[in-house]
Structures are given as C-alpha cells and as structure tokens.
Amino acid sequence: MGQSLASLLVHIVFSTKNRQPLITPDLEPELHAYLGGVCKELHSPALAINGYTDHVHLLCSLSKTMALAELLRKVKAHSSTWAKRKGRAHGNFAWQDGYSAFSIGQSGVPALMRYIESQKNRHRRVGYQEELRSFFKKYGVAFDERYVWA
Description:
By secondary structure, the protein is an alpha+beta fold.
C-alpha cells in the first residue's frame, strides 16, 4: 500500500491550571475558535469544541503524523500564550499539565457532539471531577485520585 490512511477520532478533556474559572464568557468564543485553528494547523481538525469555565472538551481527528501528546503540548502552549495577550484580565491564563483522551468510533460521534454541545447545562449539576470519573469508568481507565487532579 503506497498511501497511509487513518481515522483516529479522539475526545480530549483538559482543565485550566488548578481548575480555576479562567475561561470567562468574553474569552470563551474566541478561545474555542483559536483552539480549533491550532488543531487545523496541526492537521488534526476539531469536530467539536466546548467546555465550561475551568475545562475544555475537544473532539478531533488526530493527524496520522502527530502523536497525541505533541498535539496537546502545542495546542495548550499556543492557546495559553494567545489568551495572555488578550489583556490584563487574562494575564494568569494557564492550562493544567495533563489531559484525558479517549478514542471514539465514528458511530459514537453524533452522541459525543451532542454531549460536548451541552456542557453548560451539564455543569449546572455535575462538576468537572465527577464528569471525568464517569469517563474513566466508561472507558475502563484506571486512575489514582492522589495524582489525577494535580
């Protein structure tokens, strides 16, 4: 086979540093658009982006030439630098070091897109940690509470 083809859909969740509510209503739309632009530049187009004041969900099609860790390193570095340049109010903007990522099949995309779209409503009753615990359980990811929230 002369050509490399791949369909690598990934649901990625990451938080602001110390889960501070740094994603303000005035910053959020531009931040999400910026995240999408960075993903596109890195040949990993975002299919859905949304979140809450302290975290973001991305559904993207991972490039066949880039490791997930490298994508996240670049997305977080570029977007935090960009946010800090948006003014004094965002001067302390930073992302947590880690992230959570879950593979998803094409058949699960519509439901996940609806889930990502509904973040504001969901987080009126469910916190970030509870949300992630449910993903860890759903995808069979073992984790240690002592380290996962640091």
